[in-house]
Amino acid sequence: MSLDFTFNSFLCGVLDSVRINPSYITESPMIRLRCAQCLGVNGLLFLGSTLLQGYFSSLLLPLYYLFWIFPLYVLSMVLSLFWIQDIFDEAYEISNKKREVKVKLAKISFFDTAANMIFRKGIIIIYMIQVMIVSYLPLYIGDVCSVILFCWLYSYNCFEYKIFALRLNTMESIQVFETNWAYYFGFGFIFTILLYMYPGLVNSGIFALFFPFLVLVSVEASPPSNQKLLEMLNAKMEKSKIKKSLSVFSSTVKQEFSDTYLIRKMIKQKETGLIPSRIQMFWLPRKVYSFLIVKMQKFTTIE
């Protein structure tokens, strides 16, 4: 891919990450309730409790963490998983109604939902191990690589609900992320930089505080299609010499020539260039997943 194509994809991701549609909150009592619950538990209780740790002595602080902070952290994470699932399901149905798409989310049992969440979190845990390994690289290489990997991780966290709704399997979802790496890097960029300034449990509290709204953003967000990139490149060409050279044609012929030229340019940009078209940031989770699938198949065959 070319630098121009990559930057446009990155920019689309950055813009999409801050483009929330307030109509989801205003139109749905369910979303308002779940967002309020997330803000209350994650913001007031958990994040507020972490900010109070400065008032405890060094002797009482471990007890404060053991009997209040950590249990509250686990409780907030578990409750948020189900609340955010409700937020996404409701927003997804509203979005489909607006686009007149007749898609009904299948009702999934509590057990299946919990099992799916555990599996998805397993992928994230393996990814976190990969980030930890990379962080030990010398000089500042490890820190820079960790920030980049966290950008993709937070994007995956936000889009995993949409991936599940689209019924993509693990390998398909990973391939989507790796082939649209510039977009998802941009989507998680601002959020990662914000969290990087607040280490420890404060980081986790801020993440849980904003996460419901990022999931709402993911309902309408998607990697840029050829048409979207075509519009961006068309905007750039308005100031280029190509526009002047086309001025002798009629507006219809001019538009047709411009679109044909840009489509060919985009295809060429995708196929050539020093920038890779795919970055395998989920290499370790993919290997572990493949290994487990092979073992499970052998086990079921023996049975």
UniProtKB/TrEMBL annotation:
This is Etoposide-induced protein 2.4. Pfam families: EI24 (PF07264). Keywords: Membrane, Transmembrane, Transmembrane helix. It is a multi-pass membrane protein. GO terms for cellular component: endoplasmic reticulum; membrane. GO terms for biological process: macroautophagy. It is found in: Membrane. The chain crosses the membrane at residues 38-56, 62-84, 105-133, 139-159, 180-198. The keyword Transferase does not apply. Its main location: membrane. It comes from Euplotes crassus.
